[in-house]
Amino acid sequence: MIKVAPSLLAADFCNMEKGVRKMEEAGADYLHCDVMDGVFVPNYSFGFQMIEGLKKITDIPLDVHLMITQPERYIERFAQAGSDIITVHAEATKHLQRVLKQIEQCGRKPAVVLNPATPLDMIQYVLDDVDMVLLMSVNPGYGGQGFIPVVLQKVRDLKAMIDAHGKEIDIEIDGGVNFENAPKLIEAGANVLVAGSSVFNDPDPALAVKRLRESK
Ligand code: DX5
Ligand code: ZN
């Protein structure tokens, strides 16, 4: 089953609840929440207070993508705020396995994410510690950027790596996902698609979610 995770970065920040309701009506599987600290990425977005607020108004699982340095400092707070999945960048911490265990100990689903240029080797020895691997298909920091084509091969390589490992692990893709590349990503092995602009900017978000989910 393919899951679609609309990114709230593309919502109107002054009308966040409206954006959430729109995505509920559209049948989103997760709400992708992009947390940026202005250091790991050259942009700011929102923090745990937003996650806390979202948790109060919706039952859609919150897929929290932490684009912050040393995420170990804030795992507990993001867990308490109501994150369901917590994804940390392998590039952002010196002790990746420890952070992933920290997420698990907080009762949340641990996931790891790699920037486009980061090799898959970085996560070879933490597959037992994650429920999901996220591959960035843009350099993180902004919505609305173009998909980096070489990531398609990276998805195939990751799928082979996960199959060889034997554990069931979701493969999520984030950045520039659209109707054109979604079928190729799914064929390559992705099963969770993050979509910011392609869902929020579509006049019919429900149809956009359905089209992405059923991409062939
Ligand atoms: C980029 C974020 C993405 C972004 C995706 O730093 O991690 O989640 O919102 O937006 P689109 O789908 O517009 O590339
Ligand atoms: Zn993201």
From TrEMBL:
Q: Which UniProt keywords apply?
A: Carbohydrate metabolism, Cobalt, Isomerase, Manganese, Metal-binding, Zinc
Gene name, per UniProt, is rpe
Q: Can you name one GO molecular function term for this protein?
A: D-ribulose-phosphate 3-epimerase activity
**Function as written in the Swiss-Prot or TrEMBL entry:** Catalyzes the reversible epimerization of D-ribulose 5-phosphate to D-xylulose 5-phosphate.
According to its UniProt record, the EC number is 5.1.3.1
GO CC, sorted alphabetically, is: cytoplasm
For activity, the cofactor(s) needed are: Fe(2+); Mn(2+); a divalent metal cation; Co(2+)
HAMAP family with a match to the protein in the record: RPE
Q: Which CDD domains match?
A: RPE
Name the residues annotated as catalytic in the UniProt entry.
Answer: 34, 174
Entry's Gene Ontology BP terms: pentose catabolic process; pentose-phosphate shunt
Taxonomic source organism? Christensenella hongkongensis
InterPro entries documented for this protein = Aldolase_TIM (IPR013785), Ribul_P_3_epim (IPR026019), Ribul_P_3_epim-like (IPR000056), RibuloseP-bd_barrel (IPR011060)
Give the pathway annotation: Carbohydrate degradation
Query: What is the cofactor note?
Result: Binds 1 divalent metal cation per subunit.
Q: Which family does it belong to?
A: Belongs to the ribulose-phosphate 3-epimerase family.
Which residues take part in binding substrate? Answer: 7, 65, 141-144, 174-176, 196-197
Q: What is the protein's name according to its record? A: Ribulose-phosphate 3-epimerase
Q: Where does a divalent metal cation bind?
A: 32, 34, 65, 174
| Record's catalysed reaction(s) | D-ribulose 5-phosphate = D-xylulose 5-phosphate
Top EC category: isomerase
